Every structure is written in C-alpha cells, then in structure tokens.
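Long-time lurker. I teach an intro course on protein structure, and each term I like to show students one example going from raw sequence to a predicted 3D structure in token notation. This year I'd like something fresh instead of my usual example. Would anyone be willing to generate the tokens for the chain below so I can use it in lecture? Attribution to the forum is fine with me.
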Amino acid sequence: MTTLEPYHIDRTAPCLIVADHAGRVVPEGVELGVDPDDLARHIGWDIGAAIVTRQLADRLSAPALLCHVTRLVIDPNRRPRLPSSMPVVSDGTVVPGNRDLSEEDVQARIREHFLPYHRAIARWIGAKRRDGIAPVLIAVHSFTPRMLGTSRPWQVGVLWRGDRRISAPLLDGLRRDPSICVGDNLPYSGQEDFGYTINFHAQRTHIPHVMVELRQNEIDRPDTALAWADRLADLLVPILADPGLYELYGGDNLETLPEGMSWRDAASSSASVR
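-- Reply from a regular --
Happy to contribute to a lecture. Here you go:
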C-alpha cells in the first residue's frame, strides 16, 4: 500500500476528511527495529481511524485523504524536526531506527512521506478557496484507553479552539445520548495543542474545522467503527447543511504559526532533528 490514500478525492462536497495516522506502513528502505506487535499498537497508528474516515466520507459524500505511513517513521501531525516527529521512544517502546538519523535520512522522510500528504490537503483547500468557498476540514483520530497508567473514560472527544461552529453543535448532539461519555477537549485539548494538521491548514487559515478523537476499543472492529462513523455522520449532516458555515471565521483563532512550522521549507532545512 502507498502511504497516501486519496479516497474519492474528486467528490465535490466542500468538506475534506483527513486521517493523519490511518496506517502503519513501514516504507521500503526504512528499518525501525520495532517488533510487529508494537507496530500494531497505538504507537504505530490510530487503530480504527481508517474505517471511520472512509465511512464518514461516504455518508457525507465527501472526499478524504488518509496517511498510511506509520507515525514512527514520521508523524504527519507533528512539525518536522521536533523530537516527536521521528521519536526515539514512544510510550516506553524504543525505536532504534530513529537514533542518530543523518540529515539525508531526515530530509528523505520529510520529502517522501510528510510533504505529499500536506501538499494534497493544501491543494484541495486551495482549489475550494479559489472557488470562493471556505471549506470544512474534519480530522479523525483515535486514542488508547490507557496512557501512562491512567485510564481514559471518554468514548469520544471533540477538540476545538476559537472557532466552535462545528464543535459546539457536535458536542451538544453527542451529549444527548446518556450512554456516551463525551470529552470536551479531552483526552487532548485543542486549547493547548491541536497538532500540526489542524493548526496549519485550518486554525491558521480560519476555515471551519473540528478534530474528533475516538477511543480505540470503541472502534477496533469493523462493525463498531462503522457504527461510530454513522453516529457522527447523523450529527454532522445538519451542521454541514448550513450554507453560512462556509465562510472564514472572524474571531480569535491561531493567528500566527510557531517559528519553523511551515512545511514548505521543511525538506530543505539544514537544521538537525535532534
């Protein structure tokens, strides 16, 4: 499988669904030195996210972009050259192949597996903007039920900062079901760190957006992943039907990028990754 999956990218809906950690592919020529069982854990990918993303895209008649390179090779949701971009240790598991990477290796991973994904997102958004539309970006992630010895009770989390045009009604809809434990900016908070993809493509540009986090034991089987995608789609359809949504957000959002965040210069930088 290639590391970039354009899923019905020719669909015309003004909404793009992305999955940064859809797969756990180790590209040819890369040696991580990680046991396959560890690669199959949450450190290697977002379990269940790919099925949710495709089903959600089908239900919304929207295109999707899925990144299938394992996050241990390079994390597309981290700024290149941060230690977490090509981690030496992930949740206690050592990644020998990421130790002492040469500048050539770093640039190759950025060029071959990070840039194509983000260029594809940017090009899709740019085409919609040229048509006078501020399109929606929806990011799908999943999280491990336990992290660093702490249980996470939330079955689903909705992340936001500033622009709440999608997150607020989505949270309201999820909370109407008393059987669901819903996280408002939990288990991660958009107020603190939204991750690279939403920050760069949506927060910075003020297009409408939301990030959804699903607990992995809720979506680790195809039937449960499809059911969660359908539940989300039922709530998102009326939200996305509002024509007033497709405008730039005028409130306080992420106005500027942290230094060095631009992916356009990442591959040509001579800075050391660590």
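Some talking points for your students: The two ends are 30 Å apart (CA to CA). The chain has one domain: 4-265.
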